[in-house]
Write a structure and sequence with these properties.
5 helices, 434 Repressor (Amino-terminal Domain)
């Protein structure tokens, strides 16, 4: 049975490609060949290629290991840290005190 793949919105695809480009630049700044990155992260060279080209089929575990090799795993704490929309929705459902009529 084949796996059904959901289409990716263009905005998400562009964000993934930009993230891949940042990962590639971070690797190159460290003068690390892609083969060495793959060995350190415990993934194949193709996984590094896919990550750097914004392929969203790469697993989160591989992504986290690559960030760890680059020393950027602290950036994971920044993902979805502030949920402004969720807070506004939650605040809208809170009961407001009723004012007494004089």
């Amino acid at each position: 049975m084949s796996k059904v793949t959901m289409p990716t919105f263009p905005r998400h695809r562009r964000a993934a490609e930009a993230l891949g480009e940042r990962l590639r630049l971070a690797r190159e700044r460290r003068r690390m060949p892609a083969v060495e990155m793959a060995e350190r992260a415990g993934v194949s060279r193709m996984v590094i290629y896919k990550l750097e080209h914004g392929d969203l089929s790469v697993g989160l575990g591989a992504f986290v290991r690559v960030l760890g090799v680059l020393g950027l795993d602290g950036d994971l704490d920044l993902i979805a840290r502030d949920d402004d929309l969720g807070r506004r929705i939650q605040d809208a459902t809170l009961r407001r005190p009723r004012r007494s009529v004089r």
